Amino acid sequence: MKHLKYLILILFLSTKLFSQEHKRLFKETALEFANRLKPIESEYRYTWDLEDKDVIETHLDNTSSNNVIFVFYRNEAVSLKISDTTIMIFAYVEISANSYRKIPIDSYYTDDFKLERIYFSNTDTDPEKELVINYFKYTNTERTLITKIYDNFGVTETSGKLEEKSFFLRYENETASDFADRILPNQSKIIGKVVETSLWDNKTKTIIVFYKSKTLNEFKKYNSFGQVFIEMEKNVFKSIYIDGSADSSLDGIFIESVFFVNADKDTDKELAVMYSSPMMDGSEILGKSYWTYIYDNTNFNNPPIQLERLKEFHSTFSDFERKNDVSKAKYKTAVDVKKKLKELGY
């Protein structure tokens, strides 16, 4: 039965969707436009549904006047006994005034897809930007962030699925800060310092960077997230998701320190990140919270999608320092954390 579903989707992509141009009606919203062009139920035995959050309207880049509408169509099977939800992603690219070309991007077969970010970034050495999609995949109580990069995106694309890539290329003599800034997601900013080091395993070049979205998510909060870029070969980096959080202030989370510790019984180093955030009561600052998360060492030859946080240290290195109080937070520097780990026998 699953093969039948795949066949339906292949036929759908190959016979119905390529090289089509569509006129957008006067004053028609992106959601109305996408709903009008959604797949036809009778042809594919599915019902396709859209919500406002499934439609994103943006531009190819900050200087382009070409609109791009990203659409995430979600289906429910009608007569086929299929348990998975199918998510199909399309882009409608404006090629002339109110005239759009439909480009199929990808499809997913999962009930556990949650979009995190979709943006354009220059991930290689040519001047054209690539499309990057970050989404969470859930398994029981765990979630992992998947990063997919699609090449050959632009108004000239007329048929065929976009080429998917997995790596970020660094320019010759490009600094770590310039690299992090070049692949910066749209509507985001870098928080803290960009760290380039080989100290994790004493040989592999890594770049550690934290970003924060400048736009609110569906819960009216700002997303913060960290990434490690591991050099797999000269100037070719693989991205690993570190961690993410959300807060109500654009300047709410700070990266105090990034350092390496030994926090288990093996000899490999773990990554430690010290975060801080002001504690507010309305507009009044009550104090400052500090917390340090420790992430297990990674396989540098075959990096995972996401680092594993060592949960046994969650409460140990969480502390609060009240404003104008004589008592101070115990762990607000890398030295404080390393000293405590040594006391614990690491």
Q: Point out poorly predicted stretches.
A: 1-19, 79-83, 155-162
In N-to-C order, the SSE pattern is HEHHEEEEEEEEEEHEEEEEEEEH
Number of strands: 19
Shape: globular
Helix content: 10-25%
Q: Alpha-carbon distance between the termini? A: 53 Å
Please give the radius of gyration in angstroms: 23 Å
Number of helices: 5
Biggest sheet descriptor: 6 strands, antiparallel
Mean pLDDT: 78
The helix/strand class is mainly beta
Relative strand content: over 45%
Kindly describe this structure.
This protein is mainly beta and 346 residues long. It has a domain at 173-346. It has helices spanning 2-16, 30-36, 41-44, 176-182, 334-343; strands spanning 21-23, 46-49, 55-59, 67-77, 86-96, 99-109, 113-121, 130-139, 142-151, 163-165, 167-169, 188-197, 206-216, 222-233, 236-247, 254-261, 270-281, 284-295, 318-322. The strands form 4 sheets. Strands 1, 2, 3, 4, 5 and 6 form a 6-stranded antiparallel beta sheet that branches. Strands 11-15-14-13-12 form a 5-stranded antiparallel beta sheet, covered by helices on one side. Strands 7-8-9-10 form a 4-stranded antiparallel beta sheet, with no helix packed on it. Mean pLDDT is 78; it is low at 1-19, 79-83 and 155-162.
What is this structure's SSE topology?
Blueprint: H1 2-16, E1 21-23, H2 30-36, H3 41-44, E2 46-49, E3 55-59, E4 67-77, E5 86-96, E6 99-109, E7 113-121, E8 130-139, E9 142-151, E10 163-165, E11 167-169, H4 176-182, E12 188-197, E13 206-216, E14 222-233, E15 236-247, E16 254-261, E17 270-281, E18 284-295, E19 318-322, H5 334-343
Antiparallel strand pairs: 1-6, 2-4, 3-4, 4-5, 5-6, 7-8, 8-9, 9-10, 11-15, 12-13, 13-14, 14-15, 16-17, 17-18, 18-19
